[in-house]
Amino acid sequence: MTPRVAIVGAGFGGIATAIELRRAGIESFTLYERAPELGGVWWHNDYPGSACDIPSALYSYSYAQRRDWSRPCPSRDEVLRYLQGVAAEHGITERVRTGCEITEARFDAARCGWTLRTADGETIEADVLVLGTGQLSRPVIPPIAGRDDFTGAQFHSAEWDHSVPLAGRRVTVIGTGATAVQVVPQLAGRVAHLDVVQRSAAWILPRQNEEYAPWVRSAIARVPGLQALRRQFLRAFGVAVTAGLTVNPRFNLPWKLWSSAYLRSQVRDPELRAKLTPSDAFGCKRILFSSAYLESLQAPNVDLVTERVTSVTPSGVRFADGSAREADVIVWATGFADALVTPLDVIGREGRHLADVWRDGERAHHGMTVHGFPNAFVLYGPNTNLGSGSIIEMLEAQSSYIAQAIGDLLPEPGAALEVRAEAQAASNAALEDRMGSTVWMSCDSWYRHGHTGRVTRNWPGFVHEYTRAVASPDPADFRVLRPLPPGVPAPAPTHRTPA
Ligand code: NAP
What we know:
The structure is a single chain. By secondary structure, the chain is of the alpha/beta class. The protein folds into two domains: about 5-140 and about 335-480, FAD/NAD(P)-binding domain; about 145-330, FAD/NAD(P)-binding domain (3-Layer(bba) Sandwich). It is built from 13 helices and 21 strands. The strands form six sheets. Strands 3-2-1-7-19 form a five-stranded parallel sheet, covered by helices on one side. A hairpin with a 2-residue loop joins strand 14 (about 310-315) and strand 15. Helix 1 (about 10-25) runs parallel beside helix 11 (about 390-410). The longest helix has 21 residues, at about 225-245. It binds NADP nicotinamide-adenine-dinucleotide phosphate (NAP). NADP nicotinamide-adenine-dinucleotide phosphate binds near residues 197 and 333.
């Protein structure tokens, strides 16, 4: 008998873990997915222009390389089809319970397992909990005064309302991150007028993304080793950029010069160029890739607005300089929640809520296990995001680690593994040491925790350093727990501090 594993979230991470569990001979797992289809962020983010800005030769599983991508950075639909295809090939699709939102997971010390509760009030028992909810699953709209008084349509980019007509209307996009640079070029040609509201300028690199010519496709499909070579090249580029982000910012100079030259070549108007010139260090915020964004900002019906938004009025947006702009539709391309895992309430061995344990910034051992939360693993957890490279490599490594921990370290299904506090503290101390020299310490971004400023999202090193560190779980990092003897009361849940 193998432990029952509940995987929450069926995106790239959850699917990778299911595949690894099958490889380890563990068939007793179910994926729970709140959306009607598997796909995670790739299911939710279906805004116009949604696409991967990392070439798919790298942004794909190492063991499921496809040679027939239509272009280097395919559309969201193509990425979603890929992920759904991989899930089907590995017999995972039928193991996903879609439309099932897990709202609470509570560790039951009496039986050393997890009890999950769904949004519909159903109770599910499992031995192991894998949280595959990711870092970008909860859209956030900033609490700007008057938002509810707006009489037009408004929605977040990750909750695009396709029923709202855009043609011939005045649209305001708030935010200029990785999402906005994909949305804006799509809207510019469709709407009557587009205001793009920028709080801070970003470093942008061009993204050549023409459809592959038939001969290129055929070469990729037929020439042995070509696909692997492209993957290695992309990985090497990721390593070169990571050196500048994590070792010494001076290594960023070539990319910074490239980005500046690209901006100069695209934007002739000095006033607009000044607005688009970043003030923070290269790579401190997410580097953006687009060959269409800068051009679209110069369309006659598009304005880049750099005043701070102070309020939303019934008919538009008001700014700090007292000006106001009318809008029929507001698109909030304002990113995702600061806190990981929440609002899913995870309650650990001593009745403590993960949200409380992480109140001053998320910490986990290798980004995956948290002391006090036995038999629980986090995918794409604290300090496992990358400033450059493909997150899929990180997810593959985590999935393999988790499958090994469950398959090799758990002595029997009724037992639980808990990471030792010392192991977690040691890996975090090493991480903090390195974080000091990263570029991410020099500006505000979603990589940092809201009120403590700790960089809680990013891995402060190279991908291969992480994958080597988690190649196999160290048994010394864990202790084994067994069910409480009959009559010994389990700790009651503590009161959860309001967010
Ligand atoms: P984001 O990077 O967090 O960007 C949010 C934007 O909203 C920023 O420009 C931010 O300004 C702005 N903003 C937030 N609050 C604001 C306010 N009160 N007033 C004005 N502007 C405000 O979110 P995102 O663009 O959705 O991207 C999130 C992450 O998803 C990315 O970093 C990336 O990792 C991932 N992503 C990946 C792809 C891909 O192709 N692989 C595509 C899209 C997204 P500041 O810059 O000043 O903070």
